Each structure stands twice: as C-alpha cells, then as structure tokens.
Amino acid sequence: xxxxxxxxxxxxxxxxxxxxxxxxxxxxxxxxxxxxxxxxxxxxxxxxxxxxxxxxxxxxxxxxxxxxxxxxxxxxxxxxxxxxxxxxxxxxxxxxxxxxxxxxxxxxxxxxxxxxxxxxxxxxxxxxxxxxxxxxxxxxxxxxxxxxxxxxxxxxxxxxxxxxxxxxxxxxxxxxxxxxxxxxxxxxxxxxxxxxxxxxxx
Length: 202
Known about the structure:
The chain is mainly alpha-helical. The protein has helices at 22-32, 34-41, 46-73, 78-100, 108-127, 137-145, 148-157, 164-190.
C-alpha cells in the first residue's frame, strides 16, 4: 500500500494588532504622565521642579523609544502614529497652559499649538481624506521644539535664572514658526498640493 504524501500547509504569520503593541504601550506611559506633569507645571515652587524634571525625562525617553520600537517590530501603523502625535500634543499643551496660568508662558503659544493641531487633523482626515496624518517638515520641527520650553522653565525654577532670556526668545520664535506652519498648511491645502514632508515616523 502506497504511503500517502503529507501536504504541509504553510503557517500564516500572526498579524499584530494595530492597537496592542510594545510601541503603543511605551506611548501610553507618556499619555499617563500628562496630568501629573501639568499639575507639576502649574506649581511655581522649586520643590516640585525636580519631580517635574524627572517626569519630563521619562516622557521624553518614551517619545524617543516608541518610533524605533514600532519600526523594529514591524508594528508601524496610522493608529500608532495618531496616538503618538496626539499624546505629544496633549503633553506639551497641557504643560504650557498650566505654566501660562501662573505667567511662565504667554497664552498665545499653547493656544496656537491647539489651532495648528486641529488644523493638522482636519487637513489630514477631512480635506486630504487620507487614512493617516499628513505631515510636514516645519510641523515636525515645531513638534520637537514644543518640548523645549517646559524643560527650560523647569531649569529656571531649579535656579538657572540666566536661561530666562533664552526661554523668552524660544517661546516667541515658536509663536512665529507656528503661525507660519498654519499658513503653509492652509496654502497647500487650498492649492491641493502635497506639503514638504519629513520621512515617515511611527
């Protein structure tokens, strides 16, 4: 009797969930630090500045780690990118609004960041009708630099008073670059052109 040949069917690779991934878990750490950091930024006391700096460092480390983790594990997704950007937005704006409440920052900067972020979403999902965020070089650079004013303000509270002029220049430079970014995105949206974009991130 002839032995029947065994047909081995290839095992299909498991698809990773766009919601549950190591990169998104790292981003979630930063998300959970939003309220504690804003609370610490609302305090002008020196004793809370050291704790604020520690929370800031942990949040920044998570921001540096989530993108490379997503790319290394093959879990890059539009959902992950949106979660990452939204978390960054909430982290910096809540901190700046908290600082503005005690006069550390002018109200105009966090207000403009809110306008720019809402425009970012509307332009990407409603105007361009993309399944992911439509990024730009200027918007990316602004997004990175928005993390700097809270850090400088914490250092000033810790005793580095000489950094106050730098903070003032930085804040107003970001006000100007945010206005330019809003205008650039509006122009390219109305002209139905692609924005000068940065390399894709998580």
